[in-house]
Amino acid sequence: MLAQNFIPKKPFPDFKWKWASFAPSEGLNDPVVLLGVLFRMHKLEPLRVRFSSDEFAQEMRELSKDIKDSGIVDYNGNSINLERTPERNLIRNSGQYWKAVGLLADTRGEIRLTDFGRRVAEHDVSQTEFAAITVQTFKLPNAKIHNTDERKLWADNGLSFYPLRLLLSILRELNENGQGYITTEELVRIIIPLSGCKAEVSDYVNFILWFRAKIITLIGWPDCTPGANDLRIAREYLLFLSHYGYINRIEQNTRMDEQYLYNDELDAEITAILAEQPKDESLQQAVDRIRVADVASDIERKRVESSRRSRPNQARFRKEVLAAYERCVITNVMMPEVLEAAHIKPYKYNGEDTVANGFPMRMDIHLLFDAGHLRISVEGQIELSNRARLDYGATVPPRIYLPDFTSREFLRWRWENYNGL
What pLDDT sits at residue 75? Predict the structure, then answer.
């Protein structure tokens, strides 16, 4: 255990945590943006076009429009514009994000996904599974975001770790101490400097608690975010965990003070993820392992339940939607005791509490819909994930009738941009 008077030193002058993008990408971190771009890549991949093509630019224009009305903003609170010139297109500047998390193949400008990326784009791998796999497998240094010289510096100093796993481990132990949160300031001033010294989880926790209790100062500690964008890039790790439900972000007056709270509702699932030691395996193998452990399905169920409890006006919304349809749109079940109201465009992304944006669904069907395992097209076509098809393929119809008052625009938005919680 490190002593209270320990002062870490940088293992090499430019030691820092790079995220899966060289530039700040707060907007890209949102699943609707990250996976929305992926879905559009997948649509264009058979055409063998390049990221500098007019076709890709048009897809980015359409996605930017979808994002604009969905409450997704960048670091400064501005709407995200994914449309750029061919010389500064999204992938040229930020493509390493999709590469670093295993979705995009390393090609010379041609749109080509990895096998794992195609499975995510085709909704075979759920959003929850993608996040859990990224937590378990994203490693520093990373060949997609560190050059050869940088990786050699890490290797020469014996450094290699999984930052998302590390953050969850620290948060979990802080939670056991009754202070289950970290701030952006604690990340950049305590956690990142200690990570260059091969500290134990208990060391991170001790220094955070000592800092909060004002037992120590951080005078003399190294600055691992000296660059103009380093702080914002380091914060991406917390934003990723927040976007996928592992922690909850509480805004404060400044971003340095904002708190990221451990999601205690997922403690059992986080514990299971952390108990799995990192393995030298492909992402395809990681999918199989995650499914055997059943961790992702438990996370999906709990997140769906939590999101429903947090929605205001849910009782009125349910009453109006059930009155308009009278039965589950998928199974035709009429018992109100087992029916719930599902948002087509999610409430989180500025979806309305209106009949035009709602479906009555049996409880289990609603969970499939919210978790991304059941999709409904503008024409009423039903698409099930491979996992859902095993249990529901014989009972869910291939197509349903959609009344005129159901918003086709909300259906299109969900079909093209959303992959569940």
Answer: 59
CB-neighbour burial class of residue 155 (10 A; exposed 0-12, middle 13-18, buried 19+)? exposed
Element spanning 419, H or E: none
Could you give the angle at which helices 127-137 and 267-275 cross, rounded to 10 degrees? 50
List strand residue ranges (DSSP E) for 234-316, in order: 247-250, 259-262
Average pLDDT of span 301-322? 82
- Tens-digit pLDDT profile for residues 33-62: 888 889 999 999 999 998 888 898 898 888
Q: CB burial class (10 A; 0-12, 13-18, 19+) of residue 282?
A: middle
Decide: 344 and 357 in contact? Cβ < 8 Å.
yes
Task: Give me the residues paired with residue 127 across strands.
Answer: none
Query: Phi/psi class of residue 408: alpha, beta or left (left: φ > 0; alpha: ψ in -120 to 50)?
Result: alpha
Strands 358-362 and 339-343: antiparallel
Within the chain, how many helices (H) and strands (E) appear? 20, 7
Nearest-angstrom CA–CA distance, 193 and 220: 11
| CA dist list (Å): 55 to 60, 62, 65, 245 | 9, 11, 16, 33
DSSP 208-241: HHHHHTTS---TT---S--STTHHHHHHHHHHHH
- The answer to whether 306 touches 327, Cβ cutoff 8 Å, is no
What confidence tier does 376 reach under pLDDT thresholds 50, 70, 90? very high
Tokens found for residue 259: 């708190």
Tell me the DSSP string of 380-399: -BEEE-HHHHHHHTTTS-SB
**CA–CA separation, 319 and 207 (whole Å):** 51
Cα separations in angstroms, 118 against 89, 111, 123? 22, 12, 8
How do residues 116-147 score in pLDDT, each as one tens digit? 999 999 999 999 999 999 999 999 999 888 99
Query: Which stretch of 210-214, 295-299, 370-374 has the lowest confidence by average pLDDT?
Result: 295-299
Residue matched to tokens 């769906």: 304
Residue in 366, 397, 372, 376 with CA at minimum distance from that of residue 385: 372
pLDDT tens figures, 66-88:
888 787 766 566 666 676 544 44
